[in-house]
Amino acid sequence: MIASLRGRVLDKQPNRIVVDVQGVGYEVHVPLSTYYDVGDAGEEIALRIHTHVREDALQLYGFLTALEQQLFERLIATSGIGPKLAIAVLSGIEPNELVAAVERADVARLTAIPGIGRKTAERIVLELKDRLAHLDVAAGVAEPAGAPAGERLRDDLLSALLNLGYHRPIAEKAVDATLKTTGAPTFEQALKAALRELIR
Fold first, then answer.
1. Cβ(117)–Cβ(111) under 8 Å?
2. What pLDDT, in 10s, does the model give residues 128-173?
């Protein structure tokens, strides 16, 4: 599975960006918040990716912030909400405002989002309320494309572990524990340490 992409913006349209990664163009579906914050064609971009696999398609959904991705993944785990509708929700409300609306059970605010009726809004409130407890709202701040080396190493390690089949929460815990105890390792050293952490 693809967990992140770093490259140049090849083309951008609302809800869709093509990212050029060493000559390969990846079509990525994005919420409007990400669309507005990425640079113009030719500029560097770093996106967190959710890979959605269906019988007839493999689609990439991209986000500038961890909070956007976490909300997207919680939304698609809600009955009756698929990736397209989840992107529509994130395009119609800021991530921090969505968290606040769910916590307040503000159905009226959610139904103001295009495509969201009352029943869907009520289901979002009901099913998301308990799942928002562990969200890091501070993660709603986008990292610049030229993120610090430590952040890049963390993203690369997380991507590698996800590609190996580990679940995100377990992989994140192992990566964070590894980076705390190993100082400034190379990618290979850090990956070996993270794998050792996972089989403890």
1. yes
2. 887 776 565 544 444 444 444 566 777 777 877 777 777 888 888 8
